[in-house]
Amino acid sequence: MSELTEKESEAILALNADYRHAMFKRVAAEQGGFYLLVDQDGPLVLNDTECDEDNNIYSILPVWSHEKLASEYAKDNGHESMKPQFVTLDAWNNQWVPKLQEQENVLIGFMIVKDKDFAVDDPQPL
Q1: Which one-letter DSSP state was computed for residue 64?
Q2: What contacts 111, CB < 8 A, 6 or more positions away?
Q3: Residue 1: what pLDDT?
Q4: How many CB atoms neighbour CB 89 within 10 A?
Q5: What is the mean pLDDT of the chain?
Q6: What is the pTM of this model?
Q7: Nearest-angstrom CA–CA distance, 109 and 123
């Protein structure tokens, strides 16, 4: 896994949601996986607070390309008990995606950082 320098981390924080999403896909492919936050109860899942135009509320599973970004999100948002866990693309595609697709109103949130907008998508293989 690639380690982020402070300068690289700051550059990622400056990117908009679309660029962070594209970067996530590239880095996940290069390193064969990505990170999410977990504790003894399972992965971090955020609940949306606003309804969409069809009056749906979604749960969001956040994912990050680098362990440092996931750790910083946990620290900055009161999730100190959660630790980054690497998920291989094989595990994601064969185990996670089918289970998430069975559930209604679950989206993947890509590279959530600070208080910036982030891209979301339906659970799908990477």
Answers
A1: B
A2: 12, 17, 20, 21, 23, 24, 63, 64, 65, 69, 118, 119
A3: 58
A4: 15
A5: 92
A6: 0.91
A7: 10
Q: Judge contact between 35 and 125, C-beta under 8 A.
A: no
Q: Give the containing element (helix H, strand E) for 5.
A: none
pLDDT tens string 10-44: 899 899 999 999 999 999 999 999 999 999 999 99
Alpha helices in 15-105 (DSSP H): 17-31, 67-76, 89-91, 97-102
> Which amino acid, 89?
L
Q: Specify whether the CB–CB gap between 34 and 86 falls below 8 A.
A: yes
Residue 37 near residue 62, CB atoms below 8 Å: yes
In contact, 75 and 64? CB cutoff 8 Å:
no
Q: What letter represents residue 20's amino acid?
A: R
Between 86 and 50, the higher pLDDT residue: 86
